[in-house]
Amino acid sequence: MKFCEMKLFILRILGINQLCVIRILGINQLCVIRILGINQLCVIRILGINQLCVIRILGINQLCVIRILGINQLCVIRILGINQLCVIRILGINQLCVIRILGINQLCVIRILGINQLCVIRILGINQLCCMYNYNINKFDNNISMYELVII
Question: What is the top-level taxon of the source organism (predicted)?
């Protein structure tokens, strides 16, 4: 007696795996779409939830999402091989958020217990705004002016 039904579907064109799906209990557990021998879309599903999703264009990871218990824990969007948006989430809270433009950190937010502890906005590679939040007070540190040029 079978406890689970496992199926393997492979569509081969010119000897190359173009579509590969492994199904367990009727759910796609591993789905890989290959074009010209390169993984273009790779999804690993556990209990019907996307745990790892990678979209590759020309062999470069353009979108990478790692999900744990249905929550995005690590999300990286890459353009031309450069991290443009990187979010690390812990318990559903953004702990580290970095937006990169042309390889330069333009916005960097580090959150502790859901509170912005360090916020840096960078323009042309220079820290233009640096904020430290104290406890639950959403105010800038009295020693730092909003319009002050802060170079660290």
Answer: Eukaryota
Q: How far is CA 101 from the centre of its chain?
A: 16
Which tens digit of pLDDT belongs to each residue from 11-66? 667 777 676 777 776 666 767 777 666 766 677 766 666 666 777 666 666 667 66
Report the C-alpha gap between 75 and 64 in whole angstroms: 6
Question: Encoding tokens for residue 50?
Answer: 């996307």
Strands (E), 14-133: 16-24, 27-35, 38-46, 49-57, 60-68, 71-79, 82-90, 93-101, 104-112, 115-123, 126-131
Residue 72, number of CB atoms within 10 A of its CB: 16
